[in-house]
Amino acid sequence: MEEITKIKNLMLVLVAVLLFLNLLIKRKRVLEVKKSKVTIVHDTIWKTKVDTLKVQTIKYKKVYVHKNDITKIIKDTVFLNDTVNYEQARVYRDTLINDDFEIYSFDLVKGSLLDSRLSYKLKVPKEIITTKKIEYAKSYSNGMYLFSEVGGNSTKFDNLSIGIQYNRKEKWFASYRINLNELNQPTHNIGIGFRLFN
Asked: Same domain, yes or no, for 117 and 166?
């Protein structure tokens, strides 16, 4: 009986020493706070396309053009007062539209080509993929755990125990366990372990 009391006192001292060491280590330790890493990837794809603008020459509108200044165009005869200085001409318009741009053509013809213009409007490229990846920094902390065990085999039930376990940043641990199945002769267990794999 005296031997059991010595073992209990030894276990109690060991647990007290572990708690004391934990407090000292926490005071001296400088906290290393790792920030989470955020990666944002934008993937913009420019598509290179070759397209042909075939200007249509079938549909046209009749207009009246000043003989000396081709920028003066009258679209309807209702507004035409000066028939001497204006001549009849044809305007051919066409449009090519796709996902990336729009092209507009304008041709003014009176027997021969008087004026020709191409204008375009570019569209903003589409953003195809936006990926946001957040990698959280691993953080480990010390901890004291209370645990219990129940067990046995097919012939008898011989393990009913309670214990405490101290984990040091998931690198190593120390534990104490007492088997309470036989109260007059409890079994005391001390354990220590280390992490094998990350």
From this structure: no
* DSSP structure class, residue 182: S
Residue corresponding to tokens 């007062």:
81
Amino acid, res. 23: L
Residue 125 and residue 51 share a domain: yes
Same-domain status, 79 and 148: no
Spatial separation of the C-alpha atoms in residues 146 and 17, rounded to whole Å: 17
φ/ψ of residue 41, rounded to 5: -120, 125
Which residue segment(s) compose the domain that 124 sits in?
Answer: 44-130
Q: pTM above the 0.70 mark? A: no
Q: Does any domain span residue 148?
A: yes
Q: Is the pLDDT of residue 155 over 80?
A: yes
Q: If you ran DSSP here, which 8-state letter would residue 81 be given?
A: -
Q: DSSP assignment, residue 106?
A: E
For residue 154, give every residue at least 6 positions away whose Cβ sits within 8 Å of its Cβ, in sequence order, or none.
none
Mean pLDDT of 65-80: 81
